[in-house]
Write a structure and sequence with these properties.
Elements: H1 2-17, E1 22-27, E2 43-50, H2 52-56, H3 59-69, H4 71-76, E3 78-86
Parallel strand pairs: 2-3
Antiparallel strand pairs: 1-2
Length: 87
């Protein structure tokens, strides 16, 4: 339940700052258990985002905006973030 709430929080943060039509958050943390810096409190997430707005700007700028919105989370709860902006 905590994880679900946290993902809802991420979704709310992103949707408050960016116009997003659809967002799927995939937790890939289990794939990284053997990595040197693996920490059970930190997530490896894949964001699958459908956004006409993000598609209208460069990929680099879209990623920068997303990273800026999640800046605090990236220093506390998210270890790795994969971003897919889908058409």
């Amino acid at each position: 339940i905590l994880m679900k709430n946290y993902f809802d929080e991420i979704e709310a943060k992103l949707k408050k700052q960016i116009v997003i039509e659809d967002l799927i958050i995939v937790d890939n943390s289990h794939k990284h258990k053997k990595h040197k810096f693996f920490s059970p409190e930190k997530f490896h997430l894949h964001l699958k985002i459908k956004s006409l707005y993000l598609n209208s700007i460069s990929r680099m700028n879209a990623h920068k905006i997303i990273m800026r919105v999640l800046k605090k989370d990236l220093s506390t709860k998210i270890h790795a973030l994969e971003i897919s902006i889908e058409q």
